[in-house]
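Input:
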Amino acid sequence: MIRAKQKVAILGATGAVGQTFIRLLAGHPWFEVAELLASERSAGQRYRDVVKWHEGTLPPEVGELAILPADPAHVRSTIAFSAMDSSIAGPIEQAFAKAGKTVLSNSKNHRMDPDVPLVIPEINADHMRLLKKQRSARGWAGVIVTNANCSATVAAMALAPLHQRFGVNRVFISTMQAISGAGYPGVASLDILGNVVPFIADEEEKIEIELKKILGKLDADAITDAGFTVSAHTNRVPVEHGHTVCMSIGLDGSPDVSAVRATLDEWTGAAEVRDLPGAKHRPLVVRDEPDRPQPRRDVDTGDGMTVVVGRVREDAILDVRLVAMGHNTVRGAAGGSILNAELLLSTGAIASA
Amino acid sequence: MIRAKQKVAILGATGAVGQTFIRLLAGHPWFEVAELLASERSAGQRYRDVVKWHEGTLPPEVGELAILPADPAHVRSTIAFSAMDSSIAGPIEQAFAKAGKTVLSNSKNHRMDPDVPLVIPEINADHMRLLKKQRSARGWAGVIVTNANCSATVAAMALAPLHQRFGVNRVFISTMQAISGAGYPGVASLDILGNVVPFIADEEEKIEIELKKILGKLDADAITDAGFTVSAHTNRVPVEHGHTVCMSIGLDGSPDVSAVRATLDEWTGAAEVRDLPGAKHRPLVVRDEPDRPQPRRDVDTGDGMTVVVGRVREDAILDVRLVAMGHNTVRGAAGGSILNAELLLSTGAIASA
Amino acid sequence: MIRAKQKVAILGATGAVGQTFIRLLAGHPWFEVAELLASERSAGQRYRDVVKWHEGTLPPEVGELAILPADPAHVRSTIAFSAMDSSIAGPIEQAFAKAGKTVLSNSKNHRMDPDVPLVIPEINADHMRLLKKQRSARGWAGVIVTNANCSATVAAMALAPLHQRFGVNRVFISTMQAISGAGYPGVASLDILGNVVPFIADEEEKIEIELKKILGKLDADAITDAGFTVSAHTNRVPVEHGHTVCMSIGLDGSPDVSAVRATLDEWTGAAEVRDLPGAKHRPLVVRDEPDRPQPRRDVDTGDGMTVVVGRVREDAILDVRLVAMGHNTVRGAAGGSILNAELLLSTGAIASA
Amino acid sequence: MIRAKQKVAILGATGAVGQTFIRLLAGHPWFEVAELLASERSAGQRYRDVVKWHEGTLPPEVGELAILPADPAHVRSTIAFSAMDSSIAGPIEQAFAKAGKTVLSNSKNHRMDPDVPLVIPEINADHMRLLKKQRSARGWAGVIVTNANCSATVAAMALAPLHQRFGVNRVFISTMQAISGAGYPGVASLDILGNVVPFIADEEEKIEIELKKILGKLDADAITDAGFTVSAHTNRVPVEHGHTVCMSIGLDGSPDVSAVRATLDEWTGAAEVRDLPGAKHRPLVVRDEPDRPQPRRDVDTGDGMTVVVGRVREDAILDVRLVAMGHNTVRGAAGGSILNAELLLSTGAIASA
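Output:
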């Protein structure tokens, strides 16, 4: 079905998530990194002369690419992965969509727009149907698809099977988030070495609203948010990659712990996603050791696309407690965007090359 | 009132908490470390030849003391601070109490005994009245007084003013605990460097039961546990000292956040404690910066005896969310025991020298 | 040439280096882990029930193996990789060699025995000829081959090309060593978090003597140590894997820095090693960025078998300064042993299965 | 002799070293922080509204000060401590000196000027005599006095007693430097968490040249550099405060290790310094435990003004090896500057208020 590789552009290519895109797309069976876009300041220079590369070995052919300015007029690829900072992403992503590009955005700017799908494919692949409305409402040739905040993604993966089977009614969330979630240079070492910072700007709000949209229902052409209540505490800890999320969950009908564990264990996610190149055999893995998941030891499970759940046990106030952990820059950012693009391509929502 | 310094013994003197006792008692106006007890293996040796000292400068006169075996027959002090491991503390502490010693224990062994007070003086100094019952029930010449688990202590300090004024009905707790809470050698560096371990053996259970006893009511000669429900998640993080505790709290009458903040800010604790040498001007400090408390930066507030609270804000499910942080080996262990001893001495429960 | 896989035993299979052996041998083209040996205490139990596994996914078939006692009478494999602690390794390794086994040892016990080769194959594969003398002198059916201390290995890899081409006359060494070099549980987190410990027991002595043997000359049937002088400072730092070694090096004829850099860059090591399964295309990589190598970022170069050298520059006292970094549990331990075994098998020193 | 407190200004008051000045000057018997200077951007604002304070409790009266622009016309204090970044310090410090201020600079800009003293008072208090030449040569009403780079300071403190008694001829230096040495935000956490960076820009050059000037001889009105050769390796490690410096030292006459140890142990530094408020009873402490000094455990020795030396032992190439460790932002920056100012005031080089 897929013949030639689809050329793709990366917006915000020099930043941390931009680099993760490049690493994950190296050798991708469907996509080929053809264009790199960054700030006016870098435009015209060779990527390898500008980037402070942190993702292992820079693919040599990508290193040779000349950086383009973030303007759709210069871009030939029809797919654009956006890793731009939210301070600038809004209008640029819109310009790309208007110019006919399929924009897969990691920024918060459009996530909560009613006609923009906020998609984790295993959970809500069907929300892509919003794109029809988006096109007609905005009159764009292209579209914007977003993926969720990194901690919201980890939490959503553990909640989805339970919400689908039982119905979630309340969730307490307390996160311990890796430094790579703040980009580079991001968190100053003097702030986090041997320390915990119990605050991440806007993060609790994002978790609370994004979870309800991701787990919401698409009716006709609008999403009805999931009806549960979320209380979130977010914390930064001295971990390189991997957000750890403690959750206490209230479930309709108060199922017992063994039913909850089985539901998590058996979940395989949306059928249309299972054979995509970026989909893992199991999007969720349940571990039964008392002290897992741990970010340093489990973050690369399923090449960083699998969320690991552990310590599934009773909760004294709600129904069940557990810990979920996932790779924030892979599953919670670049890898999630790529999976969204694969979904669009495999379902014909984007024409293949 | 206090004339000569009271000589005290330290049980388990070579361990991490034992060392913190020695540091905190150096120059104490009422107590003088006179006897050090440790395992049979070390007995007879000079303290400074045996200890792997980690608390700054070892007081030279303490370093010269010969280690005694953990047997009350060898001990002349009437006050014994116990920092023994819970695997051995039970019968030894009982033997000391039977032999007429006032035992101030950090171990979990007797905390939940109905006739043993579990005391954080600013909160429940009045629970010391249980000692009368303990003496008569057990027929001991001495007594055992316990202080709480280190995370339970930090949580209790933030909950006490709210429980006293409004009544707590439900609490979600998620901790991020320092490595010094596990003693020395304790946590292996390979387990915690750049990592989070979402499990501490028995810790969640201790928090859940101890909080209710500490905040319980003494009626006649028994404690009625506080009636709230606690759900706890405990985690180990790569921080040296200072347990950080995220809490969502349900309060009777659902007071607004400003009333909660004011209640915390105004709290000075039990009147009989305020002038004790180990009591700080403020047992609780509320900070209003968005990103505090932080363990590395705030752990020594009030010489480690003050618990710092921050991020007091509304909760979507219960009433209020906040973060509390306190020094686990000072406020949550040795310093708490010393304050208990000061309380007993100042109220005449122990005869002064 | 190699038909069936050679079954191998691992002595000290539950420890940190034992686990690294199991990980590295999973899927090895020539060897198959067939027997696991550990202390009397674990013998008879299933490996997966006993081990605290830290190396990713435990190969399921290895997990099912029953642990054998460390006695050659129970062992059928003719190759035994030894990861035993040096406190017990000496007599057990001898017993295995006496019983006809080829023992590839990571322990220090026999490294400096005059008839035991201390081999890093790319450097001194020819030292294996000592085995003839060892057999005849000791009357053993088997042999003991050792690999070097982990920091000595990293230093030796950078020195070898320079010694072979110019002759090293003096070396200053200052190391910054990862915690995994001390095994598990090894270094207590309270000792190393946010800290440097400027001492590792016996490490400086090992570096000073082992380097001279490895880079020494085999004449007839004895090794003449290399004639240079070594001064070493060894330090422990809070890094998971990867020993970083700063060196100032005096070279005969005082070649200029560009000749030194070229010599390092061109070095491919002993010819007979290049096609072994564990040999990388380049045993040594020179990086020219000013701030490399870095352990967290470069430790997995060449799957941990490549040593990375950087900052090659003039020295004010001797001739050249540089930084070398290598994976201490792979190149400096288990991976080095496996390469030694491959060398023996490929050269017919061990009969293939 | 000293009557009223001397009012002082701090240039670069919002940065890391500026904050350390404020902390160390709180309660100083001779000086009072009266004026804070920072960039044009902050000028006019209240200090506590601008600073991201990291040094414990901000002295309230200092927090209320309005920030002044870095222009001597606005400044009334005659003493100015400069913590400005070297990118701007040069001309501003000159302007202050020209305007009659005594500038105590932490920047590298003027350290190597032949008529500017580079002073660590215990070592080379006599170099202050250069100021006479500086005044006449430059025609300034004020002066500039510098203190050394932070690692050079730690190394110099250990070398000074040896150079004074025996004569140093060669030194190998390998440092492991704390993140606070790079200021705030300084080192990105993604660069240093669980890592070593074997490079600090310009640091090796600074150490090599500054050590020779500090330990040089003042003859008439010029300093003759000490004649030894220095080879330095500088590394950044994940430590908050405290630079650890491994040294191999060649000494004239090759004294034995016990003479070296005794020389270090007995050293009290220049007589005119001993009674200054910032001088500690012992500027240097020798520890005999095998594994000390350690930055996290020893950095606050002598309130951060004492350099701790350990592991004094023979060297295989030169004469003696040792490890020195000192507080980089106290002894190696703000504390050193304050001691310089105290020296000037006590010797009448600055008129007292």
